Queue: 2 jobs
Job 1
Amino acid sequence: MTGSSSSPIAEGTPRACGPGPRTAAALVFGASASVLVVEIVALRLLAPYLGLTLETSTLVIGIALTAIAAGSWLGGRIADQVDPRRLIGPSLGVSGAAVALTPAVLRTTAEWAPALLLLIASLTILVPGALLSAVTPIVTKLHLTSLAETGTVVGRLSGVGTAGSIAGTVLTGFVLIARLPVSAILIGLGTLLVTASALVEWRSRGWTGAPALILALLAGGLGTAVAPGGCDMETRYHCARVVADPERGSGRTLVLDGVRHSYVDVDDPTHLRFAYVRAIASVVDAAFPAGEPLTAHHLGGGGLTFPRYLAATRPGTRSLVSEIDGGVVRIDRDRLGLGKGPGRDIGVRVEDGRIGLRRLDTGSRDLVVGDAFGGVSVPWHLTTLEAMADVRRVLGEDGLYVANLIDHGALAFARAEVATLGETFAHVALVGEPSDIGLDPTAAPKGGNLVVLASDRPVDLGAARKALDARQSGWKIVSGAELASWTGGARPLTDDYAPVDQLLQPYGPPSGR
């Protein structure tokens, strides 16, 4: 009728009896928030098995966006064909059961059927993500009763959904992961979703299917409790475990996200198990007079193996460590003996390494040690010309920078980092297996750990070679023209261009750091 105040969507179609405006907004807000909680927690849950790399993050984000797109499209289409009131409860309930079962399913798959892990991981994000994303178009359909209100209804619920996504992201990143294990987050979220499903169904049509979903929820909790692959502690950044050395009573290995990060002998700090730590010790021992106390800064702490070594072999050394993960620091204190013996004077700041560098005075350090890792890669912002300029600034005239790198395959990242240091320091050398650093052209590079050292004054490489040989590491040193040839035309890394995750090949034969 011309001049009417509204245009009905379908003549003679009664208005659907759905949730009220506040309930509708709460459903959309909660469902959207839940999708982001699942996405962020999935990254943490998968890190011990797939690593914490840019590729892993991209994969999870891509799967989550696929779930959102598929759920929104299919939810809207089905809502046009089926009474929308019949869809909300099942979407919430099934997604809740799937979320609660996720920790047990993923950890069991990783243990017993690792070849299927990527497929199962994708499904644990796709299924609940799509079901939860379907809630918004379903609720929108229930509230679209007039063409005159289309923009208002769609805009309001879209805005509420976006606000829910923001809230889920902030809550998970700043609160939940810092305080709860990922399994507890997912089981708790599943509980809330199943409860919401039961309330919606009982209110709308007295549905009695909730008991089955509650049983699935309980199965998820029980399965998570007995599933393999748990952590001793879930920190803000890592799934952490401390593994005792069966061959050495005082030996402990710190495992973060499935990778051996540090070996610590709590009774003998001079016992260095990992080859790269022995290489760093050899270089530092050769660069400074024996027993001379140093002022050192460490980018990355882990088990604090090398700061303890310096404290034991160079009494009076002042070491300050920038470690981003406060949970790892707690493990150091509670399980690895930080604060006792020679290492009791080691200072630790819970902070990002780049920010920690900026807080140091110019020329205030004899030694800077780079041993920070996110998964299997050095955080990109600690590899660039700008970061190395900050390292050079805090070092004294005779100061030394030494860093641990990991790379495999063509060693493209390692070459780029050596080129970066060559732009910053007058003297650069590389320590590693002969096949990895170009000293054995008949053998293919094995990849793994490499140690790079840089300074504005010459370092006694002959003494470093003798120290390496004394530790029977089998590692060699290359510098000068040989190192320039090994580096080739590698492009230095900058804050504007540092594709670290793309350059490095993080995976080689199974081994620890």
Job 2
Amino acid sequence: MSWWVKGPLIVALLALLMLIGLAAFPWGALRGTIEQRLSKRLGRPAHIEVLERTDRFSFHPEVTARGVSIPQPRWAGPGDLARVAEARLRFSAFSLLTGHIAVEAFDVRGATVTLIRDRQGRESWDDGAKSEGGGRRPALSRLKVTDSRVIYRDAKRDRSVDLKVEADVRRGLVMRGTGLIKGRPVDVVVEGGAIAGAAADKPWPFRAEIKGAAVGATFKGTMDHPLDMGHLTADATAYGDDLALVDVIIEAGLPGTQPVKLSAKVRRDRPDWTVTNLRGTIGRSDIAGSATIRKRDGRTRIDGDVHSRRFDFSDLASDAGKARGQAKRAEVGDRVVPDTAIDLHSVAKTDGRLRLRVGTLLWPGSSPFRSLRGTMLLERTRLVLDPLELGLTRGRFVGTLSVDQRAGGGVAPSPLLSVAMNVRDARLLDFFPDADIDGKLSGKLRLAGRGRTIRSAIGQSSGVIALVARDGTIPARTASLLGQDIGRGLTTDKRELATLRCMVTRLDVQNGIARANPVLIDTTRALTRASGAVNLRTEQLSLNLAGTPKAKSILRLSGTVPIRGTIKAPDIVIPKETKSVGNVLKMLGRAIAGKQGATAQDADCNALSAQALR
């Protein structure tokens, strides 16, 4: 027989012997090798008590493992990450030639998997290997899980769950158990379609529900492949006593609020989320919008649109937060400047851009601020609202606001609050409706100060506060009394109006002390000037009014009128000379003797207004 005949026969014979060897290979002999490689990859000793082949001759061998255990990493404490009483595996022997095992059937009995995440975020199941997405999924013809559990304990998010796991061809996957979310008990159910068979290469339907008295959520949709939690599309709902409880589930860095109900459509392509059709309520506020959430290099970026028909900022405080606020008000008294926290430490790893729109702002009482529009940019502990527009009853309050907490020299400073806002096309009456004083209102606010709340930052700020009202009206009685013309102030008809030529207020602020420079009210009846200062830290007033009528008066009060108290509750100190008949007679005597002093002339409102708004 020639070589041309023998050669192919020998090759064919060798190939046949290799195929026979592959079909009859004693896979149980690899137990030690598998243990060693698994232990090396995990960095801790894995153990397999028994590994044996349960069929005799096949290119699709079945292997049974018993007594499998993988310990937790040392930092997670004693115990096993995974313990399996028995696992039976069928795979394609030919797939080993490609370097990837193709699992065809998998049966598990008596498995317990304990997943642990500590306060630093270390995960016991993370072996350090990077997952390469998009790989081929196993086409299982059989999957059966019995008498098994998954235990999850997360100290970083303060949540845990203990689930009983079952799976088979007919019923699919069922996981049921109980858990805790920040100490609140919940029931957990996860159900999925059949994992084995033709469904393995198709979208896999699933339903997950977390249900408790204080917090809960549902997800119903499909994963791109069975158990592929990194790629899914779902209709989601959530509720909670506050948004921070819901955030324990979804991990988006959300604050505590009033009770919340939300629904949305979500799409996950690990590590990103896309949220559309967001609808819900927080307290008495409603919200809607969409967002994308991307996680890269340990940072989270949120970009989206949020709009509301009706919104109450107080709904952004939880009951505990409101209780703390009430306790503080009882201690320091009622204040105008809110004590809202602006510390950005909790969002130090969050960036993003949100476009905001609120149709109607809700307040506990009356307020000229009616709507809100703006764009919020957050980048590495610097938050900027630019542009920011607050719609007034009439007019707008527009400009920018920023909170900057970027570290300098490695030290995280107190936040720097900067406000640059302008009042445009407004009316004075909308800010002080009870005073019946009106006029065209314009102004500017330029303040910058450090503090962990708006109140503390304003209390240490420097800058300028300026308001100018022109060409309006004022009750004639009020105008006379501001000019210390007691006679006309007491005798003028209540319905009579005087002209408000201008009201000019400029407060130069240095380290939280706002000094009048100038403050005056000019009417057709009198000219009134104020001197002194306002302590923005305590909101205490230390002002003195000096009014001069523009005509001779029967009863004219000399000197100044002190204004004390706070911005919220001013206290006008009544001069002693108005408190007795004798002093009133003295005022009459000065009027008769012509010793009342000079009358006032019109102020240069144009120049004063320009100076105040410079």
